[in-house]
Design goal:
Helix content is 45%, strand content 20%. By secondary structure, the protein is of the alpha/beta class. It has 2 domains: 40-142 and 277-297, Rossmann fold (3-Layer(aba) Sandwich); 146-273, Response regulator (Rossmann fold), CATH 3.40.50. The strands form 3 sheets. A 6-stranded parallel sheet has the order 4-3-5-6-7-13, sandwiched between helices. A 6-stranded mixed sheet has the order 9-8-10-11-12-14, with helices on both faces. β11, α9 (257-264) and β12 form a beta-alpha-beta unit. α2 packs parallel to α10 (276-291), α3 runs parallel beside α4 (113-121) and α5 runs parallel beside α6 (177-190). The radius of gyration is 26 Å and the shape is elongated. Mean pLDDT is 90; it is low at 1-33. Keywords: Signal. Residues 1-17 form the signal peptide. Residues 45-295 form the Periplasmic binding protein domain.
Length: 309
């Protein structure tokens, strides 16, 4: 009988010891902030970029990759190569791969709507970056205020040239919200104060910026200022201007490394910085928060800055 009581006592002691193995103050993974996992499942996020032939979007994607790694999420990046139909196909591929969320940098804000709606129909949340979508349901949009950036560029051009100057505007991809908003802000700032003698699309591309600027200079040799909707076009235009032996004020947009160096070297007059790495990081932060069931702001702004010598 005594042996049986002793055995029962030992069992009770062992059970109590097992119950106390969790250390005081220990926390579950759910208490450690946003993580890139849902339990044992790793979040898989797709990022569709308009082009990786532009330093701005390369930096944006690198910011997203860095944040994904820090969060423990898997990020798949695809390059639409500035082709709206390829972007639609890329998004469908990502949906088939079973991504948990899509981050889209639209090539064309209107054309991308069908891709956004396809994701909506598959119950996959969508976040847009830099350029918005004209339709479909989007959880959040992360971007600088492109219109405000256009205003900054216009005001600085006026400061450098004064009123009544003859200027040209190199426009981005037709249909993209960035081109529309930057152009709108610029024109709002200079309306009635300068003479915009030429407006032409160069599709956010440096080589096209060079060719378009060569043509504009032939038709309008009196131009003294240029606003380009991005740095790639601005640098292409600058090359054409230098080849023609002219001294023309050129302002770009994006603050890519090449453009900032050109400003420091006294070649490009200015560029508008909109911090692509931060856009990429904020997009991933919003993605992880949304997948963890947290509320995310519909619009997340990223600060602008005028970069000048």
């Amino acid at each position: 009988m005594k042996k049986m009581k002793w055995a029962l006592l030992m069992v009770v002691v062992l059970v109590l010891a097992a119950c106390s193995t969790e250390q005081p103050g220990s926390k579950s993974s759910s208490d450690n902030g946003d993580a890139g996992k849902d339990g044992d499942k790793e979040f898989k996020i797709g990022l569709s970029v308009s082009t990786l032939n532009n330093p701005f979007f390369v930096t944006l994607s690198e910011g997203a990759k860095e944040q994904a790694k820090e969060s423990g999420a898997k990020l798949i990046v695809v390059d639409a190569q500035d082709d709206a139909s390829k972007q639609a196909s890329d998004v469908e591929d990502l949906i088939q791969q079973g991504v948990d969320l899509l981050i889209i940098n639209p090539t064309d804000s209107e054309a991308v709507v069908s891709a956004v709606e396809s994701a909506n129909n598959s119950n996959i949340p969508v976040i847009t970056v830099d350029r918005s979508a004209e339709g479909g349901e989007v959880v959040s949009h992360i971007a600088s205020d492109n219109k405000a950036g256009g205003v900054l560029a216009g005001e600085y051009l006026l400061e450098l040239l004064g009123e009544n100057a003859k200027v040209a505007e190199l426009e981005g991809i037709a249909g993209s919200s960035a081109a529309r908003d930057r152009g709108e802000g610029f024109n709002e700032a200079v309306e009635g104060k300068v003479d915009i003698v030429a407006k032409q699309t160069a599709n956010f591309n440096r080589a096209e910026g060079l060719t378009v600027m060569e043509n504009i200079l032939q038709a309008n040799p009196e131009i003294t200022g240029v606003f380009a909707h991005n740095d790639e076009m601005a640098l292409g235009a600058l090359e054409a201007i230098q080849s023609a032996g002219k001294d023309i004020v050129v302002i770009g947009f994006d603050a890519t490394d090449d453009a900032v160096k050109s400003v420091k070297d006294g070649k490009l007059a200015a560029t508008i910085a909109q911090k692509p790495e931060e856009i990429g990081k904020k997009a991933m932060e919003a993605a992880i928060a949304a997948l963890n069931g947290k509320d995310v702001e519909a619009d997340i702004p990223v600060d602008l800055e005028l970069i000048k010598k």
